[in-house]
Structure formats: C-alpha cells, structure tokens
Specification:
about 575 residues, 3 domains, 22 helices
C-alpha cells in the first residue's frame, strides 16, 4: 500500500479517503484497545486528543514514533520492532523472577503471557508499550501485587536526596562561572545567574549515576562543557522565560525516573522562585521506576520535598476548577491517569486540560523524546524535550507549537466575558430586562453551522416581538477555534454575573419556529430536539438553578429541569453530545 511507504509522512495517513485504510486504522485502534467509540470510559475522545495533539481534519494519530507506526500497520516484524517486543518480554521475566516466588503461579502467569506474546509476533500490530501494559496488568492481577517497585523507587530517591544535600552537589550548582557575564544592570546579571543555575539543574538532573565516585573537577568540567555545547539549544527556553519580570509562564513538567525526580523538584523550585507556575504530572500507578502520584504517601524523602505542593486528586477536573487551583498555587501535582508511556488516548481529563492551559511542556527522558519529538505530529503547546542518550550525551530539543493552533488564554476569554457583562450592565441601567438564551450549538454531529443559524434566527424573532429585553445569543459570540471548554468558561462568568432576569432554554417549538422562519422543513436529525439534548445546556441548567437559588427573581423558561439530568457533564472539549446510554454508566 503506497500510503504506508517509508518515504511518505504519517500525516498523510488519514481517515475518510480509502475504505480499506479506514478499516486498517480501526483494526490498529481496536487491537491496541484505544478506540473511543468502543470503550469511551477508558479512552479519550477525539476532541480531548486535540487538547494535546495538533490535528487537521481527518488526520490519524498513533501514540508511537513514525517508524514504528509504519511497521505496525504493515504487520511487519522487522528486527528493530522484534527487539522492542523482546525488551518488553524481558521486563516481564524480570518481574516474575524477582517478585513471584510461587512456582505454580509464576508458571501460570508466564504461560498466559506467552499466548499473548506469540499472537503479537504472529500479527505484530500492537504497540510494544501497550503489550507491556497488557502483560504487566496480567502479572499484577494474578500476583496481587499493586506496585512491586515501590521500595526500589524509595531507595533511588533516598540516594538522590543524599547527593542533592552533599557538598559536592552544592559546589557544582553554585560554582561561579569563569567567563565574565555581560552586565549593564544588576537585574540583568541576576537573570543570567538564575538561568545558569537552571541550565546546571537540567543537565545534572539527567545524569544516570551522579553519585558514583570520581574527581569532582571532572564532573564540573563535563557539565560546563555540556552547557556550553547546548547554548543554542537552550535559547528557546531563554526566550520563553523572557526578560520581562512580569512575564510568567505556566509550565507542565513531565519527569522520567525516580531518583532523578529529586533533581526535577529542584528545577521546579527554581522555576517557582523565578515566578513561574508549574504543574508536575506523575503516573497513576506502577510503571517500573517511573514516579507515581501516590509515592509521596510512602516515601519520607518525597513527603519532605513536596512540602507546599498542592495535590489534585480529581481526574476529571473542570476548566474552571483547574484554573482556580493554578491561580491559587504555584506548584500543583496531578496524576496523568495512566500506567504507561505518554499516550494521549489514556491520559486523564485533568491532564489533558492542564496541557491545554499551560504555555510550555518540559518533558524529560528519552521515552518522552520518542513519543513527542520522533513523530511528525505536532502538539498544541511548545515542548522542550531534554534527556541523556545511551552514550551519556545531553540533548535538548524544542518542538514548536504550530502557528495555526489557536490558544485562547484565560485573560483573553475573561476579557471577552467582561465585555459582554458590561453591555448587559448598560442595558439594565437603561431599564431593559436581560435574557440569556441557551440552545444546541453543536450537540448534533456536523450541524454546528446549522445550530448557530437556528439560534440566531429565533433570537432575531424574539427581539422583534419583545420590547425592552436585551437578549444574549451565544451563537453570535462563537469564535473559530474555541472549544466547549473555552466557551463554557466564558459563559459561566456571564451567567453568574447576577444581571440575568430571564434564562430561556431552547424548546422543540423554538427549533420548529426557526426552521419555519427560514422557510425550511425540520430535517429528521433535528426532529424532537430541544436543549435537553445538549450536554452543554445540561451543564448550564445546573448553573441556572444555582444562580436562581442566589437570585430567586430569575425566571427559567424552557423544558423541565428534570429532563436535563439524564446526562452528565458535556463531553470533554467537544460540542458533540455524550450518548445517553454512555452517561447512564457514568
């Protein structure tokens, strides 16, 4: 199949162009247990994926490197892919030998995993990390061990903390630079020294065995040489951190391994000291020596180092809640919701929203480099990937957010909301009643443009009929590129302003009247629809009832509120509805 040739780009592999290719892609997704339509409770929706991955319409994303994706689609067991599978097999054998002393249980687990492994070798379409996750899950469920590496991670952290508190490390970090730093102002010199400290911490944090004995001078020279050789690579970080003391970033930090986490926390504390806000994302559960969200409960070293951090235990945090937490805390710790390598299909809602709200992603380790840099796909935020290769050389790569990806910051959306509120306040001062009109905007797939036209037509009709009423039509404020998270965040500010007199929810009659005014019959897909069919409107009904409790004079018009509550919160980042039967499983 020419679409899968080694010379082509994986960006050319798309849905909707070739039925046979569509079937193959669905086969790939289902065999890897990543297809949202089959298991929406475990897998992220396409809209949630687009919080992180910058995808054009129809573009297919696989959570692996380009070369691996091509091999897997062709079901070609190349030597390189076979080595990746064998590495995962050896990891399982290591777990069994070390943590499963019962010979009968060990043989049962080994035989079961052999069946899975042979199937993969026969038809190699499973991503190696997904095979690893599958076999480790079998091991954990059969053995009853929830985290066999817990003590090992504690030991790594304890040894790293010992190094971090040593005079040798203090000397490496605080040694004055030999070269003269340009200084026109003391503030310039302070920024240069702060950035040098950050460079040293980033380089040192990637050392695999920084505690091995050896001449300190050798390590000093090596670090200085690596920083000097990487100056050009560090320039994107310098530019993003900026010279303006008021310019502060929101940074998502993805660590690599335990032990190194101790130095990651020093990097984070340096960033916080410079005024930036950091979200650290840890694994939800066991993934070998990778730190987990729960390690702090059993590790006294981490308990001390995480002092002052705000831990978020909610895996489906709303945009409003996340932004509030980020405003109130400079250092936030979240779970990424997974037990595997970076895989957007299995990451939590909270992680996806955190990615969407930050300015920069700092991703440490070669594993992140392979998933984030060794792919033709672009991402919605700037990524700085730093790691040390097998030869021990330090690398730092900058992957730029594509220019066509919109980023609606909190300040922009808030200003947009404040403009609408100001108009409402002026209208009320002139003696007008204020009505908010909630309706279906995109809850019917492929009908967003029609939905806006339906709402706008009916609001125009109301404005002609109602005197002295200022009507807010969300369809008139829709901005290309804004997703449901952005819009709900903006409209909630307007809705809770205390200025509303009437809150009208779209009824079936409203929709039928709109199509009549447009000179059209109601299409089958719109027949019987009303605001209760919109998960966004369901969220708004909850807000309306809450506002009414604070302002009893508010009139709520439309379908009975009880009819809304068969649905849960609107789909993450999407206008399209969450199906009723899916919500019932909630």
């Amino acid at each position: 199949m020419n679409k899968l040739s080694d010379s082509g780009s994986v960006l050319d592999i798309k849905y909707g162009q070739d039925a046979a290719l569509d079937a193959l892609l669905l086969h790939f997704m289902t065999e890897n247990n990543l297809e949202y339509t089959i298991d929406p409770l475990k897998n992220a929706s396409p809209e949630q994926i687009q919080f992180m991955v910058a995808l054009r319409e129809g573009t297919f994303y696989a959570p692996c490197s380009d070369w691996m994706f091509r091999k897997l689609l062709r079901a070609e067991l190349s030597p390189q892919l076979r080595d990746e599978y064998l590495l995962r097999w050896r990891m399982l054998i290591g777990l069994l030998n070390e943590f499963c002393p019962d010979p009968y249980l060990r043989r049962r687990i080994l035989t079961l995993c052999k069946h899975k492994f042979r199937m993969v070798l026969t038809s190699p379409i499973i991503i190696p990390s997904r095979l690893n996750k599958r076999m480790v899950t079998i091991f954990m469920s059969q053995s009853g061990l929830d985290d066999p590496y817990r003590d090992r991670r504690k030991a790594l952290n304890a040894k790293a903390a010992e190094v971090a508190e040593s005079p040798v490390f203090d000397r490496l970090l605080n040694l004055c630079p030999e070269q003269a730093l340009e200084c026109r102002r003391i503030s310039d010199l302070r920024r240069e020294l702060d950035f040098l400290e950050l460079q040293r911490l980033l380089v040192f944090s990637t050392l695999r065995r920084p505690f091995e004995p050896g001449p300190v001078a050798d390590l000093e020279g090596r670090m200085d040489a690596e920083i000097a050789a990487s100056q050009a690579d560090f320039e994107p970080l310098r530019r993003m951190l900026g010279d303006d003391p008021e310019h502060k970033l929101r940074i998502l930090y993805l660590p690599d391994r335990s032990g190194g986490l101790v130095f990651d926390l020093l990097v984070i504390k340096a960033l916080i000291r410079h005024g930036h806000r950091v979200i650290l994302a840890l694994k939800e559960g066991f993934y070998f020596d990778t730190p987990t969200f729960w390690d702090v409960e059993s590790d006294p070293v981490l308990a001390h180092l995480f002092n002052g951090a705000h831990f978020v235990f909610e895996d489906r945090m709303t945009k409003n809640e996340l932004l509030r937490v980020m405003r109130e805390n400079q250092f936030v710790v979240i779970s990424d919701g997974s037990r595997e390598r970076f895989n957007p299909y299995r990451l939590s809602v909270t992680f996806a929203r955190a990615w969407k709200e930050v300015d920069l992603v700092l991703a440490k380790g070669e594993r992140h480099y392979r998933r984030l840099v060794l792919t033709s796909h672009e991402f919605t935020r700037d990524i700085l990937s730093f790691f040390r290769d097998e030869q021990g050389h330090f690398h730092l790569h900058h992957k730029i957010r594509p220019s066509w990806v919109s980023k609606f910051g909190e300040d922009y959306i808030t200003a947009k909301a404040e403009t609408i509120i100001s108009r409402m306040r002026n209208a009320k001062a002139e003696g007008n009643a204020i009505m908010f009109y909630s309706g279906i905007v995109g809850s019917i797939p492929g009908q967003t443009k029609t939905a806006i036209q339906v709402m706008t037509t009916f609001v125009r009709y109301l404005r002609d009929r109602l005197e002295g009423v200022h009507i807010i039509n969300p369809g008139e404020h829709f901005e290309e590129g804004m997703d449901a998270d952005d819009l709900m965040f903006m409209w909630e500010k307007v809705q809770r302003s205390g200025l509303l007199t009437v809150w009208r929810f779209q009824s079936t009659h409203d929709i039928e009247k709109s199509f009549e005014l447009m000179g059209l019959k109601v299409p089958p897909v719109w027949a019987g629809k009303d605001a209760t069919y919109s998960t966004g409107c369901t969220k708004e009904m909850h807000i309306a009832l809450d506002v009414q409790r604070q302002h009893p004079e508010l009139q709520i018009i439309g379908p009975d509120p009880e009819k809304f509550f068969r649905r849960r919160e609107y789909g993450v980042g999407k206008f399209c509805d969450v199906a009723i039967d899916e919500c019932a499983r909630g």
